[in-house]
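Researcher: Next entry in the queue.
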Amino acid sequence: MLNRKSEKILTNCIIENKENVYRLAYSYVKNKEDALDIVQDSIYKAMDNLKLLKNPDAVKSWFYRIVVNTSLDFLRRNKRIQTMEPEMIETYCPGAEDVYSDIDLKRTLEDLPIKYRSVIVLRYFEDMKISEVAEVLNENTNTIKTRLYQALQLLRVKLKDEASKENM
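Model: Structure for this entry, 168 residues:
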């Protein structure tokens, strides 16, 4: 009985968050086909490992962790980084408001090391609480707070450098 209930909770989570999950995968791999493959693999892994879900109330962060880990595995396997195609995100996620108004911010965010970019994306683009980000990344809450602070400092410095270059 618990298994059926867990399946239903997971299915609802996937349906409710499908655009966000796709964008999360896309933020790592920068390619629509690869992001769709990652989402598909993540759904398969989640369904296959549903018995490992200890708390059905934490299904969203559990599933997001699977998506992040699958994305990182993909990057390690393929050892490649591709440029982002912003119009493709809008094509597959109409109504999504994650449009970069400042190209410097987009470029700077992409240049951040993955551990900082992950925290920024989950916290600000996926609107997760610090505790949820910590759960998704399987880290201590204080570690996430520190990484978030460091990431924001890096963004601030890099954006200031970009602005000073433009003013020259």
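Model: The CA atoms of residues 98 and 125 lie 7 Å apart.
Researcher: Noted, moving on.
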